[in-house]
C-alpha cells in the first residue's frame, strides 16, 4: 500500500471542498455542524488555505486513489495557538481519512509523514465526543519514535471543547 501526501494546488480547491463535505458529515455527530440552506456544510477557512502563508492543505492518496486530507497550520507564533508555549507551533487543524481507508494504518502513516516533514512542537485537538479520534491520536503519538507529550489537557471554553495534546518531535 503506497500512501502519499502532496500539497493541494488552488486549481484543485473543488476536490478539497468535496472532501470537507464528507469530513463535516462524519464529524457532525460530535461537533454539531449543520447543513446550510443549500444542503452543504460550510468551512470558513477554505480560501485561507491558499491565501495565508502558514497554512498547508495536503491531499492523502492510497495507491493513487484519493483517501483524505490534512490541513495544517505551520510555524504559527504562540499567540495563535491555545495551549503551546513554544515560540513556533505546528497545528493539525483538520485531519480526515475516508472510511474506506480507516483501520488500515493510512492515518498513522500520514501522521508520521507530517511529523517527519515538519519537526518541532505540534498541537493536536480532538473534539470532546469523538472518542475514535482521541484513541487514534493517542496511539499515533505513543508509537511515534522520539516523540514526547509536552502537555495534555481537556478544555471546555468558548474556543474549544475537547482534548488538546501538545507533542514534541
From TrEMBL:
Domain N-acetyltransferase, first and last residues per copy: 3-169
Signal sequence range: none
Enzyme Commission code(s) on record: 2.3.1.-
Superkingdom of origin: Bacteria
CDD domains: NAT_SF (cd04301)
One Pfam short name: Acetyltransf_1
Enzyme class: transferase
GO MF, one example: acyltransferase activity, transferring groups other than amino-acyl groups
PROSITE patterns membership: GNAT
Keywords linked to the UniProt accession: Acyltransferase, Transferase
Protein name, entry field: GNAT family N-acetyltransferase
Organism field: Perspicuibacillus lycopersici
Lineage: Bacteria, Bacillati, Bacillota, Bacilli, Bacillales
Amino acid at each position: 500500500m503506497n500512501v502519499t501526501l502532496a500539497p493541494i494546488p488552488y486549481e484543485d480547491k473543488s476536490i478539497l471542498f468535496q472532501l470537507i463535505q464528507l469530513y463535516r458529515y462524519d464529524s457532525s455527530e460530535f461537533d454539531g455542524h449543520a447543513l446550510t440552506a443549500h444542503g452543504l456544510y460550510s468551512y470558513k477557512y477554505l480560501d485561507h488555505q491558499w491565501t495565508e502563508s502558514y497554512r498547508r492543505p495536503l491531499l492523502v492518496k492510497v495507491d493513487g486513489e484519493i483517501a483524505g486530507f490534512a490541513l495544517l497550520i505551520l510555524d504559527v507564533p504562540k499567540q495563535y495557538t491555545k495551549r503551546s508555549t513554544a515560540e513556533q507551533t505546528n497545528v493539525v487543524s483538520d485531519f480526515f481519512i475516508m472510511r474506506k481507508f480507516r483501520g488500515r494504518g493510512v492515518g498513522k502513516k500520514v501522521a508520521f509523514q507530517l511529523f517527519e516533514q515538519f519537526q518541532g512542537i505540534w498541537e493536536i485537538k480532538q473534539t470532546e465526543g469523538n472518542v475514535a479520534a482521541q484513541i487514534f491520536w493517542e496511539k499515533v503519538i505513543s508509537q511515534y519514535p522520539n516523540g514526547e507529550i509536552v502537555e495534555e489537557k481537556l478544555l471546555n471554553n468558548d474556543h474549544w471543547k475537547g482534548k488538546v495534546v501538545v507533542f514534541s518531535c
